[in-house]
Amino acid sequence: MAERAVGLEGVRIAAEVEVAKRLQDVKGLVVQEGKSIAVAEWVGEIFPKTGKQPLVEFVKGDGEERALRVGVVLSGGQAPGGHNVIAGLVDALQQIHSQSVVIGFLDGPAGVMEGNWRELGGEELNQYRNVGGFDLIGSGRDKIETEEQFEKSRKVVEELGLNGLVIIGGDDSNTNAALIAEWFQQKGCSCSVVGVPKTIDGDLQNEWIPISFGFDTATKTYAETIGSIARDALSAKKYYYFIKVMGRAASHVALECALKTQPNVTLISEEVAEKEMTLRECVDQLCDVIVARQKLGKSYGVFVIPEGLIEFLKGTEEYLQGEKDPHGNIQVSKIETEKLLIDLVEKELRQRKFTGKFAAQGHFCGYEGRSCFPTIFDCAYCYNLGLTAAVLINNHKTGYIATLTGLTNPLSEWHPMGIPLTLMMHREERHGTQKPVIKKALVDLNGPAFHAFAKLRDTWLLDDHYQNPGPIQFFGPKELTHSRPLSLRK
């Protein structure tokens, strides 16, 4: 930031972040090993040094008071709150020893491989607290995957004398963190590697990771837009809005937005896949709703579509031939699914000789949710994740991901832990080869969030129960400012 922030940004920068009780004295925290969970035999073969580690929790004790040198890298797409992870990491390391140093690798994993970095802290870092973006050090989608790249990274961290490397990223980036941790161990490198769960898609979650950071902010940002558009639809009564939301593989974002705003139709990719629906069947379903609403005199509506839908429908191969990212993922955000569906719905309605009114508008809720002001929840979650990562490194833990459980409880009761990255692995074909990767968490069609949605959605088809949650709140009643994602509720 070139100038000192003013207005809301200045107020948010100065805002204090609450710390969980278990993290209020990081200097004195030691790890306590919990249960070991069995992993597949192949995991131990690929990760002989880090593949069979236990869960760890934190307890008060005589933690080491040593000056630490820790690197941090932002990997993959932006998610609100990343700067607070760095702030928490810096503050914790300073509490452990005033001579500790945090080094930020520039522009993602490429910065690690090439040794592009700068020291972080002081007044410069203070200007990034509680604000969105990854612009403090930048991010990137490069992947550390070849032996040459692993070796370059090892040499860089050893030349810098790093005790730890924190990789802030999603499932692919944390898979990379696990591989780097194993490589370092096998080569006798003492640098601990710790991951932090980041992705607005919400697909890095499991029994120990309730949700990835950024999800709360992104879904509230999109829900504000969807709610406003729904109010416009209800006011003008002349448009169908096809709104695509982020969610490359999983439909957590679409589901959360549906629970918040109650649109007429929300397509869930995982349900589409379970039913083995074709693109034609999906179009027919939307047309059926349009025809039924027209019979009630309604020529308007709101449809929410996850960006990854096209991958789950049968008969869409021709739309999936584009360029893939370095992790082998189809760049579905570049496929204008909302416009494709509008076009196909128009054609089908003509085939049906539909005599009602149909005018459609497409909208994409996407990048505006990546770098906006993080919610108070994400600010606190990220800061506490940074503290957690610091404790893991100070206790020489490597190949772990920092997490906090109990997120629906009061913040003071959040429970910090370290989870072995290898515990989340499965095998998946990438570029024609079976690779170990962290399994994406898809929407559980038997879970409470989907059940709540499924119970209500039929009433939303023809009747208008739109909810407009409005913008993210930073001031006022706690039920507004400190609300948690609805899909976290059991």
Shape: globular
| Class from secondary-structure proportions | alpha/beta
**Sheet of most strands:** 10 strands, mixed
The number of helical segments is: 16
Architecture per CATH nomenclature, i.e. the level-2 architecture of the largest domain: 3-Layer(aba) Sandwich
Tally of individual domains: 2
Low-confidence segments, ≥5 residues, pLDDT <50? Answer: none
Distance between the termini: 41 Å
Radius of gyration: 23 Å
Q: Percent of residues in beta strands?
A: 15-25%
**Briefly, what CATH class of the largest domain?**
Alpha Beta
State the total count of DSSP E strands: 16
| CATH fold category name of the largest domain | Rossmann fold
Instruction: Compute the average pLDDT.
Output: 95
How much helicity do the residues have?
25-40%
